Amino acid sequence: MRPSRLAAALAAAALATLAAPPVAAAQAPAASAWKAPRNAWGQPDLQGVWTNATITPLERPAQFNSLVIPEAEARKLEAANAQQNAEGLKPTDPNAKVTDLPVDCGRGFRGTDCGYNSFWVDPGTRVIRIGGQARSSIIVDPPNGKLPPLTEAARQRMAQRFGRNNPRAFDGPEMRSLGERCILSFGTSAGPPMLPLLYNNTYQIVQGKDEIAILVEMVHDVRIVRLNAKPLPASVKQWMGDSIGRWEGDTLVVETSNMRPEQGLRGASGGTQKITERFTRVAPDQILYSFTIDDPATYTAPFTGEVAMNATKGPIYEYACHEGNYALEGILAGARAMEKQGRVPTSDPVADLAGEGGG
After folding, report:
1. 3-state secondary structure of 123
2. Domain boundaries, the chain
3. To the nearest 10°, the Cα dihedral for 235, 239, 242, 248?
4. Is residue 56 exposed (0-12), middle (13-18) or buried (19+ Cβ within 10 Å)?
5. Cα–Cα distance measured from residue 296 to residue 281, given in angstroms and rounded to the nearest whole number
6. pLDDT digits over 295-317, tens only?
7. 1, 95, 226, 286 — which has fewest CB within 10 A?
8. Distance CA 21, CA 294 (A)
9. In terms of CATH, what superfamily is 3-58+145-325?
10. What sign does the dihedral 77-78-79-85 (CA atoms) show?
11. Which helix (H) or strand (E) holds 333?
12. pLDDT (tens digit, 9 = 90+) per residue, 236-267?
């Protein structure tokens, strides 16, 4: 689809979404009870604005030993999340110093990263429900709901790039994450795989006869899936990879390769990964999204996950990542200041500010 046609299609879909009433999160009925509508080309219609926001984690927590959990347990998790949000809405003491911040403020944040309160985040309020069943994890295979072990080479790669004492971690912007640089989304929100994050978990799907566009809210990415197309040469690496799609009945199957090594899941890619995604519209307001990652240079076995993409009211607003973005400049300026003092910056900013950084 040419850029002008894609822009027109995105605009038309956004207007259609604005005219539609809000749709609540769905619980998928039995497969035989509902059939996806078709678009002008006879394809199952995936168009619309969707969110994968959820409090269900990627990996299964130790408290659960099965993928499906009782509804009562799911409601307990949702109530605890609501309480955490209420606590996070409380104002921060303006007189607090960086060293006064909590060591662990929840959702994986520590120290100086505790600057977000609940007003600024939107990770979701419910666990994943597919077919009316509550899920304990996104990972469905291996059966234990855990990522397979990393290869030894991958462990060494990650320790070298992301380790606390990596001497090059603050050399320049190229050593920082893609999200900090406003190149691509944090984590793998842009995909593949498209996984939920702390906020901006919204996607807009626009279909054409030969191409499908997925507009990603986080850091304004647009991913193009080429239908029944020939893959690009292996030497051509792209952000979000080279995505080739095909229809298998009512399911859109997308195979992606040629991803740049900087964009692997949790930073672990060895540049060899192949990702297979499946999009199946299982209800008027839900798409079942599944993905399988096969990356022999990083993981000792393939693994599969499932996410519910629920319809939500649009449109998707602009994500202006670099407007007022002083964080990256501050990170590098702080590192240069420490170097002038003969100290080596680490990945623990609280320790650095307290004078405990390497020397």
Report:
1. coil
2. 3-58+145-325, 328-359
3. 160
4. buried
5. 31
6. 988 899 999 999 999 999 988 98
7. 95
8. 40
9. Calycin beta-barrel core domain (2.40.128.20)
10. positive
11. helix 327-340
12. 999 899 999 999 999 999 999 998 877 777 76
